Amino acid sequence: MQTQVLIYDGRVESLLTVQEEDTALRQLQHRRENLPESQTVTSIKLELTELSEKKQTLSIEQLETVQRQKRYEQEVGAVESRVSELDGKLYGGMITSPKEATSLETEIRHLKERQNELEERVLELMEELEPKEKEISEVSEKIQQREIDLESAHEKFLIADSEIEDTLNATIQRREAAATATDAELLRHYENLRGAFGSSVVVKFDGNNCKGCPSTMPAMEADRLKNTPEGVFSDCSECGRIVVR
Question: E strand or H helix at 232, and its extent?
Answer without folding.
Answer: strand 232-235
